[in-house]
User: Fold these one by one.
Assistant:
Number 1:
Amino acid sequence: MSEAQTLFRQRGFAYLWWGQLLSITGDRLTYLALMGLLLEHSARPGSPAFATLLALFGNLVVAPVLLFAPFSGAWVDRLNLKHVVVVTDLVRALTVLAIPLLYHTQPAIWVSLSLVFLLFALNVVFLPAKSALIPEIVPSAQLLRANSHLAIAGVAATAAGALGGGLIVDAWGWSAAMAIDAATYLVSVVTLALIPYARTTPAASGRATARSYLRDVWDGWSVLRTNPEIFTCILALAAVWWAGGVLHVAGNPHVLSSGETPSMLQIGLLLCTIGVGTALGTWWINTRGRSVATSTSLGGGLLLAGGTLAMFALSSNLLVFLAAGFFMGIFAAPALILTETGLQRGTSTEQRARVFSGKDFLMRLSLLGSVSATAYLVALWGTDMALSICALTLVIVGMIVWRRPGPSTA
């Protein structure tokens, strides 16, 4: 029996995998639906430009993490992780469903963006809880493969959600895509609730006081700051998040300007090719990539991603965009897979959620800087220059990561 078959015979992992496949598919629908909402709203008289709304949306995505993530992980570490992910997915379903209902009732963009803020505030709790849950339902020796299969679920969801989302938004409107996303969250709630999980709040945590809680928060940040392998993970992953912010603000308008009529299907196709490339990169990590030093995989991937992004920036052809997206997905895969496993192995059970919430804080901080700087650069020099500067940044960070100690994933 193969290692993959053994993983999927474990009920906990199988339920988590299927739940994530469905909910991430819905996430991609929501992303394209929100693009459709912002594009529609920007056409209203007196409304901000589409690029400005994209930058505002990007800031709202990261704001909850910057406000709450430094402290939420220590709280999550004291809770039943299964209960956390089930409840937050249920509330996320209701939040997504409320966005089109309220916008059609009160078409003020601030109402919809307030719900977007709430949606990503829930992610501040869900994401570290999910990452901390994985090592508790999967044996340590299978963590890399488990994270890879979860990444492949994300890739498959990205491909399905991106293609389906583009078609749904163009044909039926963005509100239909959000309704489907709400349904996927509800299915995810059921699968997460079926995960066999018996852990309770650690007895050592006791009743939290302000002093003990702040000490827990500080302990998590100390791990991120002092462990050199974990710092390498954070640096490599931050570069990928930075590039994601640039693609959000500069890449989307760059692609939409390539055709006579802007279409969400163009964005959907780009997301799909990035997803397919990430799947191929994930396969390589689990096969031939196992013999490559992690710092080499991380640094080399960033160097190659930078070169590919430069090709993306200098083109105005949709086929070139799709080819570049495919290769960027391949080269970004090490940062997405190896860093997750490295953080899980490098932290104890009692500190895992706070380390992952700290990681989420730093990634969103990188994204905030990215979308803000890119909005300024696009207004000043255009999308191609903003993308080119990001490509150079990836190359520089890749050279630094290559020379640093890599995380243990074996």
Number 2:
Amino acid sequence: MTNAVTRHPEERELLHAAFRSFDEAAHTLQQSYSALTARVEQMDLELGQSNEALRRQLGDNEAMRVHLDGILESLSTGVLVTDDCETISRSNRAAEALLGATDAELRNRRASDVLAGAGLGLCDRPQRIGQTVVSISRVPLHNDSGERSGHLILFQDITRIYQLEEQLQRKERLAAMGELIGRIAHEIRNPLGSVELFASMLQRDLGGQPSAKRYAEQISQAVQSTDRLLANLLLYTRPVRMARGWHSVESLIEESIKLAAHAITKVPVEIRKDVSREVRSIWCHDGQLKQVLVNLVVNAVQAMPNGGVLAISLSQEPSQALGMPAVRLIVRDSGMGIDPAHRSRIFDPFFTTKDEGTGLGLAIVHSIVEAHQGRIDVESTVGQGTSCSIILPHPSRGRDPNEVQTGTRSRPESSDAHPIEPEVVLAEEWSHE
């Protein structure tokens, strides 16, 4: 009995120790669990913050990607993105429009094959794609590490620059030729007057000799023909002072078509007119604008030897075309078109591809349009036709017309000056080819 009691406190002590150890372990476990829970909560918070930051970054990246895509697609410069093997991986709308293909059709093709298929090459000289003049260049593409990851092929539309350069060269060339032509015309016209006088005297004195009189009449006719040619030359070279006013567009077009009837009636031509309701009258010298229209209409008809469509239209033009309110008058044909090799020379005096003709038709057109402070543009595709666009100032009806001539474009017209009003003369019948 004594031994049992003695052992009982020892067992009880051991049991108490075991409970204490269990309590301590449970407490330690509880602390560990609390710490782990706090750590998990902290990690959840950090993960949530990281996820939020990642979402914001992804959103920013997507917004940046969309923004960059918008910039790329809004560029007027065509862009092809290629890898080091020249395989196209991306293109923008400008490049697709120039090449006549979609992004899907361009992807995974070699850039050199695409360019060769369009008749283009990587070079500094201007190249034509339809009516557009472009320069094509290639620049290396680098990644964030500065390593080259491919190339960008850039198509820069330089059509307007090319046209301005052509106009400047043409003006310089025409100024030199005009000075020479003017001097020669005056020198020829002086003795020509004497020849005409003597021929008329011969006709009078040879009234009783019909055969001899015919020779004198032929001399007189030849002199008059030469004098008309010289008159056209002087019209082209002299500074023109014009009394301009408001004239009905319909009347100008109708009268010009009547004056060109000698050419129109030779072939089956369908004439289409489209005059904007907003432009019923035009500020011009009516006689000279008729001469412009007649020359362009005759030119267009002769470009359609088998017949076709002659379209004449007039519409408002954005102010940036001339830096002032303007209208665009277009004469379009469906004829043979202009050889690209001749396109830069069509306004040169004496340039013609016909066996007959003086080559003054379009030269005089250009001179008259310039005198109106306007501009003439020509677009042509061989086998499809030619479009001649004349852009002229169009002042407000209530304004002083002389205010149209501002800046360095022209000199104001004098109200008391006697205007030169040359009659409409068919300078020649010039065809595209």
